[in-house]
Design goal:
By secondary structure, this protein is an alpha/beta fold. It is about 20% helix and about 25% strand. The protein has one domain: Rossmann fold. The strands form two sheets. Strands 5-2-1-6-7-8 form a six-stranded parallel β-sheet. A two-stranded antiparallel sheet has the order 3-4. The chain binds pyrazine-2-carboxylic acid (VGL) and zinc ion (ZN).
Length: about 200
């Protein structure tokens, strides 16, 4: 029984001043650093998009950020341009301790599909490889922290329970975007899926 801390998307664009700032996103960095020593392993995820990514409102004629549009894989919220691969906004918060990270998993790098979950792209079918990595290492108990609780953290946590992992979300070490009641809906979905909301 081995425990891994998965820190989701604690990147500059999701922190105050960034392109898709999550309120209070920077407030969780020091508590996350402080809990890393409690785990056998630490994994960081990194949202990593090409400039022409289909989740960006800027890439849809006449669209506004936060508008919902149909995509071949389901409905998709359009976001402001964020976490462009190789730019400063895609870098981790400068105070995040990266030294204990065994793996940095990038996601969302295909133009035509978004990837909230650390396990599957938004078609719920295309794997990122993380499940196999964790299983091969015997990491069975997953704790999640990071940004944003109501999107990438929730989608990752729910997928993880479906994949058979024991899953906990440390809400105090998360912050949410909370568009149109998304945080309440996300917590509801996590409880129903059997995620332990600590
Ligand atoms: C995220 C929206 C778009 C997240 C990533 O990390 O929660 N949200 N891309
Ligand atoms: Zn993104």
């Amino acid at each position: 029984m081995s425990h891994v801390l998965i820190v989701v998307d604690l990147q500059q664009d999701f922190c105050p001043g960034g392109a898709l700032a999550v309120p209070g996103g920077d407030e969780i960095v020091s508590s996350i650093n402080g809990m890393m020593h409690l785990y056998e392993s630490v994994v960081l995820t990194q949202d990593w998009h090409p400039l022409d990514h289909s989740s960006f409102a800027e890439n849809h004629l006449g669209a506004e950020p936060y508008q919902v549009v149909p995509m071949p894989y389901g409905s998709q919220i359009l976001w402001p341009c964020h976490c462009i691969a190789g730019t400063q906004g895609a870098e981790f918060h400068p105070d995040l301790d990266q030294s204990r990270a065994d793996l940095i998993l990038r996601k969302g790098f295909r133009r035509e599909i978004d990837s909230y979950s650390a396990f599957f792209e938004n078609d719920h079918r295309t794997p990122t490889g993380l499940a196999s990595y964790l299983r091969e290492r015997g990491l069975t108990h997953l704790s999640f922290a990071g940004l944003a609780e109501d999107f990438c953290v929730t989608w990752s946590a729910i997928d993880a329970t479906r994949l058979g992992f024991k899953v906990r979300v440390i809400s105090d070490a998360c912050r949410a975007i909370d568009v149109n009641g998304s945080l309440a809906a996300a917590r509801d979905g996590m409880r129903r899926a059997g995620v332990d909301l600590a």
